[in-house]
């Protein structure tokens, strides 16, 4: 269980590192294709790298046992029992992940319901669904949904080309893959930011591909502006309308990044290698096998008689007793160290020859222990340096989090400015409508003045030409009045339609701006 927690920790650490590298080096470039593969490969590496280890073998000298000292040597690692709280946290995380996966399946089921609701029009393996309930165009795999009544022919051509590019480049796979990762590691906020970055990069990539085919930036940007205000609440589909419209327009007009800047993609590989050498190296200690030779005692020891009685014959030479040394469980116990023995005279009436152990091997054992202690100190020093590097990395992560918070704050301010601009646009539309109304009133007054002038002219012609000119003047006046009435009627209808259209568009812009502001406020919280 501890291995599982360590694996999850390493995976999320790699995901965070790869996202920070993208934000620092790759986000501002126009290498959208390379960025797409960067997200896919880095995510797969985050899952795979913690599973592999590099084994490093360190040879250590055997420990010398002196006297009756016994060493308990066990090859099994000490394991600690997992606390109950961590077990509860794991079960809670699994339940939430299953819930999110179930929600993902529900979203897929909703799209399948739309697919089965009407027969498609199949062209080049792409199924087109034209229906009035589709407020904004979107696509999923090889299914394209749109409403042709909302756009004219030129706008619909650009929109369909955009969605067809999503389908041909199979961007739905990226969305399903990153959404599944978010369901598994929902507790990692940087992974959700990675999902947002993936969606944005796919839109930038599609915009770039469409503009390479059409070469009409102005018309494409106007189409984006027209679709602003309607969003699709399904995280698995590619919608032509996205809330980061301003960023897309800026990317469309951005200069292409030079190819020499592709060296940036080598830095994530360096980060992966550093992770391997810091966390994926296992050190295995092996005991050196030394051949031990026991020095033979003197064959003819010198014996001196004691004053108490005649000397006894020498006994058989003693050999070191190695039966008390415990046998390790992993590696065989080395043979007994060489012991130099020398005979002693019989003293104080002692009839048994004594043997003394040479101090040379004691000094050798002490030197070996000092060497082992030096190696332990070197390992401790390396551990301290690794801990220092980890602390510095944590400090850098904290600074990155702080920068991300500032970026979110700036985005919120930008959204607020966009809302204010939308309000100003609505007020401008309102003023334009009032001006159009005033122009209509002025036109009506001009028509009345014209009618008065015609009446005066009619009276003058009646005085001059009498009965002959009266009929002619009446016909001319009637014709003019009829044309003026038709013009007034057409002007009134056109002004009314323009006023209603501007009013509806202003309402939609204000609603969308309020939604964006609420979403940004929610994201900040």
Structural class by SSE content? mainly alpha
Question: Termini distance?
Answer: 34 Å
Shape: elongated
Q: Topology as H/E string?
A: HHEHEEEEHHHHEHHEH
Q: Strand content of the residues, in percent?
A: 5-15%
Biggest sheet features: 5 strands, mixed
Number of helices: 10
Number of strands: 7
Describe this structure in words.
By secondary structure, this protein is mainly α. The protein contains ten helices and seven strands. The protein has helices spanning 2-26, 32-48, 84-116, 153-168, 171-184, 189-214, 217-226, 245-252, 266-279, 360-524, and strands spanning 54-60, 121-123, 126-130, 138-140, 143-146, 238-239, 281-287. A five-stranded mixed sheet has the order 2-3-5-4-6, with helices on one face. A two-stranded parallel ribbon has the order 1-7.
């Amino acid at each position: 269980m501890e291995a599982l927690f360590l694996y999850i920790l390493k995976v999320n650490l790699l995901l965070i590192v790869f996202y920070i590298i993208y934000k620092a080096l790759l986000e501002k470039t126009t290498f959208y294709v390379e960025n797409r593969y960067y997200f896919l490969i880095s995510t797969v590496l985050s899952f795979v790298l913690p599973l592999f280890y590099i084994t490093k073998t360190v040879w250590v000298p055997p420990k010398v046992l002196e006297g009756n000292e016994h060493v308990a040597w066990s090859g099994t690692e000490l394991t600690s029992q997992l606390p109950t709280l961590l077990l509860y946290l794991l079960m809670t995380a699994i339940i939430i992940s299953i819930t999110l996966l179930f929600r993902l399946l529900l979203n897929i089921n909703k799209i399948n319901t739309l697919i089965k609701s009407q027969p498609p029009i199949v062209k080049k393996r792409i199924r087109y669904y034209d229906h009035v309930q589709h407020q904004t165009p979107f696509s999923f795999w090889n299914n394209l949904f749109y409403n042709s009544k909302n756009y004219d022919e030129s706008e619909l051509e650009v929109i369909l080309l955009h969605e067809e590019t999503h389908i041909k480049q199979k961007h739905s796979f990226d969305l399903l893959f990153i959404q599944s990762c978010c369901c598994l590691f929902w507790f990692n906020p940087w992974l959700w930011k990675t999902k947002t970055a993936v969606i944005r990069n796919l839109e930038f990539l599609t915009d770039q591909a469409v503009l390479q085919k059409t070469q009409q930036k102005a018309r494409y940007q106007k189409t984006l502006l027209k679709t602003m205000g309607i969003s699709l609440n399904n995280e698995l589909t590619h919608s032509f309308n996205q809330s980061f419209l301003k960023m897309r327009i800026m990317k469309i007009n951005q200069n292409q990044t030079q190819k020499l800047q592709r060296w940036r993609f080598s830095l994530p590989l360096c980060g992966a290698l550093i992770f391997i050498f810091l966390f994926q190296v296992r050190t295995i200690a092996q005991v050196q096998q030394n051949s031990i030779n026991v020095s033979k005692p003197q064959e003819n020891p010198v014996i001196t008689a004691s004053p108490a009685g005649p000397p006894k014959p020498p006994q058989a030479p003693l050999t070191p007793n190695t039966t008390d040394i415990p046998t390790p469980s992993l590696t065989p116990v080395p043979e007994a160290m060489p012991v130099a023995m020398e005979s002693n005279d019989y003293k104080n009436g002692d009839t048994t020859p004594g043997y003394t152990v040479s101090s040379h091997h004691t000094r050798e054992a002490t030197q070996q222990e000092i060497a082992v202690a030096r190696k332990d100190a070197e390992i401790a020093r390396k551990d301290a340096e690794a801990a220092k590097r980890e602390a510095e990395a944590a400090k850098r992560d904290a600074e990155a989090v702080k920068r991300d918070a500032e970026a979110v704050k700036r985005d919120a301010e930008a959204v607020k400015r966009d809302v204010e601009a939308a309000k100003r646009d609505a007020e401008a539309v309102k003023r334009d409508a009032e001006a159009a109304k005033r122009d209509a009133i002025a036109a009506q007054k001009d028509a009345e003045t014209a009618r008065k002038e015609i009446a005066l002219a009619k009276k003058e012609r009646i005085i001059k030409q009498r009965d002959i000119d009266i009929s002619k003047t009446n016909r001319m006046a009637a014709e003019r009045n009829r044309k003026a009435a038709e013009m007034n009627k057409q002007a009134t209808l056109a002004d009314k339609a323009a006023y209603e259209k501007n009013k509806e568009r202003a309402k939609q812009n204000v609603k969308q701006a309020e939604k964006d502001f609420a979403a940004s406020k929610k994201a900040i919280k």
